[in-house]
Design brief:
Helix content is 80%, strand content 0%. With 131 residues, it is an all-alpha fold. The longest helix is centred in the last third of the chain and has 23 residues, at 108-130.
Length: 131
Amino acid sequence: MSDQSERYKAGMAVRRQVLGDAHVDRASAQMTEFDADFQTFITEGAWGSVWARPHFSKRERSIVTIALLAALGQDEEVAMHVRATRNTGATKDDIREALLHVAVYAGVPAANHAFKIVKKTFEEMDKAEAQ
């Protein structure tokens, strides 16, 4: 992309801070002409317009994001954002509290499922760190 907007550049910087270079590089390598506009949209919109805002810390945004994704049943996105907590500073305690809110406001089944996803993701992260 040769004509990157300032919002895109800011979004890409935040995206790399949160998700890590390896993840963003993999996503970028998989991008095709078909989804290029979508990738630009999420980089500018989610990362450049929302995650780049100064009011919430990355830790706070991480907690809110995990809760919302859990409430929506977005398993892969929950796992990705749990892995990103290595970079955002959100703790296991933060995530547990967020999932308790999910149980109250979005339903016990959504939270129960999210707890399973988060536990599995933490196990994978612990194994990777032990190697």
